[in-house]
Amino acid sequence: MTQAPPTATYFQHLAEGRFMIQRSPSTGEWVFYPRMVAPVSGANDLEWVEPSGLGTVYAVTVKRAKPPAPNVSIAIVELDEGPRMMSHVQGIEADQVRIGMRVRARIVDGLDDNKIVVFEPEAAA
Amino acid sequence: MSAKDLRGRTAFVGAATFGCGEAPGYTAIELAAEAGRRAVDDAGLKLSDIDGLFICLPNDFLSGLTIAEYFGIHPKMTNNSRTGGSAFLTHAEWAMLALDAGLIDYALICYGSNQRTGAGKLVSAQAPSPFEFPYRPNNPVASYALAASRHMHQYGTTSEQLASVAVAARQWANLNPEAFKQGSLSVEDVLATRLVADPLHVADCCLVTDGAAAVVLTRADRAKDARKTPVSLLGAASATWHTEIAQLADLTITAARESGERAFAQAGLTPKDIDVVELYDAFTINTILFLEDLGFCPKGEGGRFVSSGAIGPGGSLPVNTNGGGLSFCHPGMYGLFTLVEAIRQLRGEAGERQIAGAKLALAHGNGGTLSSQATCILGVPETV
């Protein structure tokens, strides 16, 4: 069966308030970013599934802005299901985000027309 | 037939740079063409001898056609494939194959960019990712900063150690009259510059300059007739694992591990044999990662290795002897300059920064956000 357009579907789910990623029933692997085929295995039976929304900060940087613009956290978050994604960690000063921090996903307005997934410290949620 | 059969079958017979630093008014193709002409002249050849053209320009995706027309030649092969700043070392790999197969006789690899005086900032050819762009990472620095954060977390690497890479580069640049940035630079000076993407400061980042470079590669039989001592290509290999930094499995290990392993195997050499190392230092973390991944020090030891003084003038392993992308020049795709400097060192043409008796050199290119890695190992004739 041919996939619905993966990129468009991801953002459509977000527009509907749902954070959904792909999973292959045949291999059991979770996939992000959304694709027509799973990397490595080549599985093409990818289905859209809601992940737990929980994850751990894997890598961190701070995009330093010229004041008065605020500094922005740029992080790679490893979802509990396995895949990693670039995102922001919000609800905490950008320079206080640490590797290993437990975080929870939240859907917010992006800078463009799309909604995006950001993360907040799990404890604050 | 194995990759090892390619060892020493081709040699660099020409090398040149042009317009490094600022070259106001020149277009990218004009800079590339002048570097190309100089490299051909350096080889004692005529433009009409060139039958293989390899090139990248910042914003011309058909630059192989452009340069052929510009030179008024009819090449048998043009190649403007792009892997980011490593492209020119992958070009050397393809040229080596085409030369050895007899498809072409003389390959010119060239590059030019006017990004400093033309655009005023890095000109990127990378399509924005729909899964990165919404977060507006200040790429490429943000991606390298993320890798640096992991190296610090896993191995205790410090900002001071990162800064020592920039300091060594500047010490070498001070011996290179062509270097754009000169003058004293201390670890404290680096740390006093503005943070761009933690933990990387302005002085942890490569320059934004103009500049052009070119090399000529031919078969060993023809290289004997070259005007200058030929520099043999003993090994060339490339590898790629990802394009977006979030997709790299371990942010402290790059595909340089594979490209280096294959290049060393082809050359029949080990890191201990190498006299001088030219690495693509887009950011200070690069030098640390590539020294580890290419086998010059154990994984995780890169920070301590670079801060020991090993890589600077007088150190045990001369690295980036031209001053690198951090202090010599960085027109956007620096890779070709690693080859030019390796050739100059092996020819004994490096002036005050010459490594006495250098016989074997390694040049390493990086493209994208640690995405594409390409390694070339070069040697003087007696090493073949």
Descriptive key words:
heterodimer, A: 125 residues, mainly beta, OB fold (Dihydrolipoamide Acetyltransferase, E2P), 2 domains, three-stranded antiparallel beta sheet, 1 helix, 36% strand, globular, B: 384 residues, alpha/beta, Peroxisomal Thiolase, Chain A, domain 1, nine-stranded mixed beta sheet, two-stranded antiparallel sheet, 13 helices, 11 strands
Give an overview of the whole structure:
The complex is a heterodimer of chains A (125) and B (384). Chain A is mainly beta and 125 residues long. Chain A has one helix spanning 6-15; strands spanning 21-23, 30-31, 47-49, 54-63, 72-79, 84-87, 102-109, 115-121. In chain A, the strands form 2 sheets. Chain A has a 5-stranded antiparallel sheet. Chain A has a 3-stranded antiparallel sheet with strand order 2-1-3, with no helix packed on it. In chain A, strand 7 (102-109) and strand 8 (115-121) form a beta hairpin. The model of chain A has no long low-confidence stretch (mean pLDDT 95). Chain B has one domain: 3-Layer(aba) Sandwich (Peroxisomal Thiolase, Chain A, domain 1). Chain B has 13 helices and 11 strands. Chain B has a 9-stranded mixed sheet with strand order 3-2-4-7-1-8-11-10-9, with helices on both faces. Chain B has a two-stranded antiparallel sheet with strand order 5-6. In chain B, helix 6 (159-173) packs across helix 10 (284-293). Chain B is globular, with a radius of gyration of 19 Å. Chain B starts with 9 loop residues before the first strand and ends in a 5-residue tail after the last strand. In chain B, 62% of the residues are buried. The A-B interface holds A 7, 11, 32-33, 58-64, 72, 74-76, 84-88, 95, 99-100, 110-112, 114, 116 and B 129-132, 134-138, 142, 145-150, 153, 194-200, 244-247, 251.
